[in-house]
Amino acid sequence: MNTKKDKIELLRDIAAGDIDPKTLSPESVIVSDGKTAFDGLMIAVANKKAGKKNPVVYVGEARKSVLQIIENIKAGRNERGLQVDF
Asked: CA 1, CA 36: separation in Å to the nearest integer?
């Protein structure tokens, strides 16, 4: 997280118009590796519970991984008839 590779992916997503740079802060955690996407989710959950703004930005493969995780959660909850709040 916040590696040189992460920052390059962030710049690519900003240039492509996928991310608004105004939403970023110096405290933002940038995640581009799909293998660390779950770690980013845990940071986001901990920050939300602490009442902090969610400073986790997913770019590149991490974005794809997070979307897949969310879809799997939605599908699992829908199968059991639970409400999904995403």
From this structure: 8
**Phi, psi of 65, deg, nearest 5:** -65, -45
- Average pLDDT of each block of 10 consecutive residues along the chain (86 residues)? 93 94 90 91 90 86 91 76 58
State the amino acid at position 53 in one-letter form: K
Q: Which stretch of DSSP H or E encloses residue 31?
A: strand 29-31
Tokens of 25: 């802060």
CB atoms inside a 10 Å sphere around CB 32: 25
Cβ–Cβ contacts within 10 Å for residue 50, how many? 7
Element (H, E) at 6: helix 4-15
